[in-house]
Write a structure and sequence with these properties.
This protein has six helices and no strands. The chain is mostly helical and 203 residues long. 22% of the residues are buried.
Length: 203
C-alpha cells in the first residue's frame, strides 16, 4: 500500500457558491441589497454542509439563516412601511410571503422525514434558492422601483402603474432564466461534488 499522501485536487474553494450573486438581483436599495447578499451567502454555507458531508453543522447553519432572515424581514418591512400602508395589497402580499417562508421549510422537513439528511437539506436548499430569487426579482425590485418613482414626485398609484409596466415585459423571462440556472446548478453540482468528496475520503 502506498504511503503517498492523498492530495485534495477536488477540494472546493472557500468562496464556492451554489447561489452566486447576480447584479440582476439588485433592487437599488443599498441596505436591502446588502442583506439579500448575506442571505444568499448563508444559503451557500448551508449547501456546503452537503458537499462537505459535514452534517453536524446543519443545525447551526439553519439557526443562523433563520435568525438573519427574521432580522431581514423586519428591516425590509420597516422600509416598505415608510411608503405603503399596512393594508396596501402590495405590502400585505409581501408580508404574507415573509410569514409563510419558514412554515414552508418546516413542511419540507416533515414531508421528507423518512429520507436521508442530505436529501432533506438538498430539497430545502433548492426551495431556498427558488424562493429567494423569486422574492427578490418578483417583489422586492417592483416595490423598490415604485419607491424610487414616488421619491421623484409621483403618487403611489402612478408609481405602482409604472413599476408594474417596467417589470411586466421582462419579469417572467428573467425569473425563468434565474430559477432554471440555479436549479440546475444546485442539483447537478451537489451530486457531482458529493461523489468527488466521497471518493477522496475513501482514498
Amino acid at each position: 500500500m502506498s504511503n503517498k499522501p492523498v492530495t485534495h485536487e477536488t477540494e472546493l474553494p472557500e468562496d464556492f457558491e451554489i447561489f452566486p450573486w447576480n447584479e440582476k438581483f439588485n433592487t437599488g436599495h443599498e441596505k436591502i441589497d446588502e442583506q439579500h447578499r448575506t442571505l444568499a451567502g448563508l444559503v451557500n454555507r448551508l449547501a456546503r454542509t452537503l458537499i462537505d458531508q459535514d452534517y453536524s453543522d446543519v443545525s447551526s447553519e439553519f439557526d443562523e439563516l433563520a435568525k438573519y432572515a427574521h432580522l431581514h424581514f423586519m428591516d425590509e418591512e420597516s422600509v416598505w412601511l415608510q411608503y405603503f400602508d399596512e393594508d396596501d395589497p402590495w405590502f400585505s402580499s409581501h408580508l404574507h410571503n415573509h410569514d409563510s417562508f419558514w412554515p414552508k421549510v418546516n413542511d419540507i422537513q416533515l414531508a421528507n422525514s423518512d429520507k436521508p439528511l442530505h436529501e432533506v437539506v438538498e430539497n430545502i436548499t433548492q426551495y431556498l434558492i427558488r424562493w429567494l430569487a423569486f422574492h427578490i426579482v418578483g417583489e422586492d425590485k417592483r416595490m423598490a422601483s415604485a419607491i424610487q418613482l414616488m421619491e421623484s414626485g409621483m403618487t403611489i398609484d402612478q408609481a405602482k402603474i409604472l413599476a408594474d409596466a417596467e417589470m411586466k415585459d421582462s419579469l417572467h423571462v428573467l425569473i425563468d432564466v434565474i430559477l432554471n440556472m440555479h436549479y440546475r446548478l444546485c442539483s447537478r453540482t451537489l451530486a457531482l461534488l458529493r461523489e468527488r468528496n466521497a471518493h477522496e475520503k475513501n482514498e
